[in-house]
Structure formats: structure tokens, C-alpha cells
Amino acid sequence: SKRIDVKDLNVFYGDFLAVQDVNMVIEPRAVTALIGPSGCGKSTFLRTLNRMHEVIPGARVEGHALMDGQDLYGDDVDPVEVRRQVGMVFQRPNPFPTMSIADNVLAGVKLNNKRMSKSDQEALVERALRGANLWEEVKDRLDRPGSSISGGQQQRLCIARAIAVQPQVLLMDEPCSALDPISTLAIEDLIAELKSEYTIVIVTHNMQQAARVSDTTGFFNIAGTGKPGRLIEMDATE
Ligand code: ADP
Ligand code: ADP
Questions:
Q1: Whose Cα sits closest to atom 2 in ligand 2?
Q2: pLDDT in tens, 159-179
Q3: What is the pLDDT of residue 228?
Q4: Global pTM exceeds 0.80
Q5: From the CB of 91, is ligand 2 less than 6 Å away?
Q6: Nearest ligand, measured from the Cα of 12
Q7: Which of 22, 26, 84, 129 has the greatest number of beta carbons closer than 10 A?
Q8: Tens of pLDDT along 188-214?
Q9: What pLDDT sits at residue 24?
Q10: SS (H, E, C) 86-150
């Protein structure tokens, strides 16, 4: 769990300024919620925190994001290592559909470590699935495809895949928007448990959800101003 200091951040797509002049402290062992209208740059901002913007043609970042003091954009920093330390969970649960549940959990780990023993792999699968509150539901069907479980279970599988690589930070981009209310509550409970270990940033459209899960809420700019996304306020959620 690490702290992130965002300093004077601007993000461009070509000439278009999508995120302007964001300064923000993201505290460790806490949940920071980001709220704002569609198109104000929330997803763009999240992507800058694990250098995913670099895979988008034309996207460019100015400014700094310091993770426990180390600039994530430093020349000597390996973007692959940043992505290992800063995991991402998306709006649509995106397990590899034909890959088994167990292999889905291991998918990220195997990018870094191809020579794990079978027993180490099994232990890691169990640990990550327990960490994602999914173990009891899938322990008898680990070899079934990722697509064989419900949407809410698939989202927890994606969280298991993200935490299996032992990141410091978890970014969640509207992780409940595609889920039913019961699955949503399961994810919110899980977020509350995960915050003891990870720095969590969640983008949500739901004020009640922000109030339920977050310690701090960052409000991005108001619709119709015609301006790029700016952080207008940071508030303690309670
Ligand atoms: P939000 O997540 O708040 O809905 P986004 O970060 O997705 O906002 O988008 C912010 C702005 O940047 C929008 O105007 C969007 O159209 C634009 N944008 C997002 N992705 C790209 C891209 N790959 N290329 C060009 N413009 C983009
Ligand atoms: P969301 O609603 O989840 O924020 P969007 O609908 O804004 O997603 O964007 C969906 C995808 O299209 C994203 O990968 C985003 O980067 C891309 N995108 C969004 N706006 C533009 C744009 N103006 N030009 C190119 N790509 C864009």
C-alpha cells in the first residue's frame, strides 16, 4: 500500500486537453472515490496512474505522479513494473472467457514469473480467490471457464487476478456499473476489506456508493462548462 502524490497533471489526446492541472494526494490504506460527469476525464486520469495512457495513440501526460516519492513517469521507471504495482479493474468484468478460473487468476502472475511450481500456483490461486471473497463459490470448479460464472463473480475473479500479482494500488473504473445490486454490495464489502492492504481508487457515478466505500471523494468538473477535467474539490466522505 503506497501513497500517490499527483502534481500538476495535464493529459492530452493530441491537442485536446482531457485532464487539466490535477493536484491530489491519494492516501494508502484508504479508498479514494472519483466522481464527475461523463467525459470529464476520470478514466483518463486513472490510466495515467499505471501508465496505461502509453498504449493509447496520441495520449500524452505532463506533470508528475509520485508513488511513495518515486515518479511513475521517471525515465528509469519500467512501465511494465508500474502496471504490476498498480492494478486495474474495469467496468465490464473481463476474465479471459475460455481460460479456466484458476488460469485467469494466474494470467497476470505468469507474465512476470513463468516457472512457478504447481503447488505454488495452487496456493496462490486459493489465496487470491480468498482475498477476492470468491474461493468458497468456485473452489469446486476451478477448471471451468472464466465465462461460466455470474457477472458479479467474474468481477471478483478480475479482482483476484489483479491482487494475485501483489500490487500496491488497485484502480477500479466503475467496477459495479455492469452489476446487479446484490453483486454490487458484494464488491463494496470486498473493497472495504481490501483497503487494509491496498491503496484504492474507484471511479463511480454513484454518490451513495462513494459515501459507502470511500474515505475521500474527489469531484471532477461540472458538466457543460466546456472545460477539460479539473479536480474541483476533495472532501472527506463522512
Ligand atoms: P470519463 O471517464 O470521465 O467519462 P474519459 O477519460 O473517458 O472521461 O474521457 C475524457 C475526454 O477525453 C472525453 O472528451 C473523451 O471523449 C476524450 N477521450 C477519451 N479517450 C480518448 C482517446 N483515446 N482519444 C481521444 N480522446 C479521448
Ligand atoms: P467510459 O464511458 O467507460 O469512460 P468511453 O465511452 O468514454 O468509456 O470510451 C470508450 C473507449 O473509447 C475508451 O477506450 C476511450 O479511450 C475511447 N475513446 C473515448 N473517447 C474517444 C475519442 N474522442 N476518440 C478516441 N477514442 C475515444
A1: 38
A2: 999 999 999 999 999 999 999
A3: 65
A4: yes
A5: yes
A6: 1
A7: 129
A8: 999 999 999 999 999 999 999 999 999
A9: 93
A10: EEEECCCCCCCCCCEHHHHHHHHHHHHCCCCCHHHHHHHHHHHHHHCCCHHHHCCCCCCEHHHCC
What is the pLDDT at residue 37? 85
Which residue lies with its CA nearest to atom 27 of ligand 1?
13
Distance CA 74, CA 28 (A): 21
Residue 222 reports pLDDT greater than 60: no
Q: Which atom of ligand 2 is nearest to the CA of 44?
A: 16
Q: To which residue does cell 472467457 refer?
A: 97
Query: What is the spatial distance between Cα 185 and Cα 188, in angstroms, rounded to a whole number?
Result: 5
Q: Which residues line ligand 1 (CB under 6 A)?
A: 13, 16, 18, 36, 38-44, 56
Residue nearest to atom 8 of ligand 2 (CA): 43
Residue with C-alpha cell 483518463? 44
CA of 87 to the centre of ligand 2 (A): 20
